[in-house]
Amino acid sequence: MTRILHSRGYPGKEILLPALRALKQVTANEDPEIRPRGRNGKPGGLILLRDLPVIIVPDLHARPHFLETLASWIPPGFTEPALALMEKDALQVLCVGDGFHSESPGYKRWLEAYQEYLKSYRTHKAMDGEMEDSLKLMLLVMDWKIHYPANFHFLKGNHENIANEHSKDNRSFRKFVFEGDMVTLWFKKFLGQEVFEWYYDFEKNLPIMAAGNGFCVSHGEPRRYYTREEVINCYSNREIIFDFTWTDNGESDEHVVEDYLRDYFPDMPDALYYGGHRPVSDLYQLRAGGRYVQIHNPLRYPVVYLRNPRDMKNNYGIVYIDGCG
């Protein structure tokens, strides 16, 4: 982790390609008790978390030091940091996705990078900085998944769209400038088509939903209700993926969160659904009659830490790990 974070410049093809190849081997052989197989015999879109304490990490958005902070954070009830606990099979970590595209802290850099983009990256210092943060973050994600496949998971978010495609499961993206097109052009120009294709395949096969002990998680609030079998087989109906990653506040079908919680936890009336996607101004925002807990704060490092369902009653298990109160 230290080598990745403190190396100079962005990770190049010689680092990313071996990591993507190793990751493909690991994810193709995930434990079916954790990631059930679909009808095609391949790992599906659902993660069934183990009976271990869990940390849920909201949108990361080009913040590699969020994961660095998490790695050294000592969860309550333990005397060792999170990374050592994953190593000892005592903890699991679930990220809700969105690795690329810095948000408001990177606004000025995006404006500078846009001017570089308009000139086809004849100069590219600002965009190199943006991609350095995104790629170092995602290299950590890959590294942790390779080393702790049963204890570390990364769900697909709407920003997992390296091709900036507009399709059944994705939508092209722009916020401050033309971030989606800018990343696609830079990636192909400086990392090459081969790395691009491997990374595209990685994104296309990410899981979209997780269920633990009394809670469900996805990147965004699900738009519609889908059966467990449909979620597992989402890659054959990619509109399902869109409905878990792009739903805006207020766009979900009525009672959809309640339907999922009743399906997965019929005997747990206090079960909760966690997600990120849309920013909140403080620790969390409640939706769906208080059953959906939105946790993405782009200026802080909040996580959900759950050892058992009782923890959900104490601030929904949400804590800041950045030491700022």
UniProtKB/TrEMBL annotation:
Residues 155-160 form the Serine/threonine specific protein phosphatases domain. GO terms for molecular function: hydrolase activity. SUPFAM superfamilies: Metallo-dependent phosphatases. This is Metallophosphoesterase.
